[in-house]
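To: structure subgroup
Subject: Chain for Friday's discussion

All,

I'm putting the inputs and outputs inline so they're searchable in the archive.
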Amino acid sequence: MFTGIVEELGEVTAVENLGDASRFRLRGPLVTEDAKHGDSIAVNGVCLTVVECGDGEFTADVMAETLKRSSLGALTTGSRVNLERPMALGGRLGGHLVQGHVDGTGTITGREPSEHWEIVKVSLPSDLARYVVEKGSITVDGVSLTVVEAGDDYFTISLIPTTLDLTTLGIKQAGDPVNLEVDVLAKYVERLLGADRKESVK
């Protein structure tokens, strides 16, 4: 479980194509300082398992399902990535509950800079739109953010200077893909309400 508070801006140092999977090597001295084989690290919001770790870098295998559902397949050597370790029980929950299980991808369609923040517009797949509400939470490339405006096929977010400086959202441009994870609580509520409706029909 993660919080969507990015700890480190890392970098892809190697990508190995394994046919129906890929192996990534990533640099992140902070997130690897206490990491070991089998630990989880979120990469652009995708929960990956550490295979090897040392010298400030770690290796993770990415299976076909993850490559299909996320934008990790577009990463190349030199790509910058958002990194976060799992939250520790008993710690502060700075963002919202994030699983690292990407629901789909969107595309940055516009940026409106202002003096102290920037509004970013992101396309929203139709099957995820019902989970996104104004002032609700959404994870974009692993960053926990508050929805400013929720449309049928888009949403907007407001980025403060810290987010622009310390995450990949500060360097992504219109046309770039981003990983999206909606609030899991909304999905559970939908499922439970659907079950209640089925029971009432019987």
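Points worth raising on Friday:
DSSP finds three helices and twelve strands in the chain.
The first strand starts at residue 8 and ends at 17.

D.
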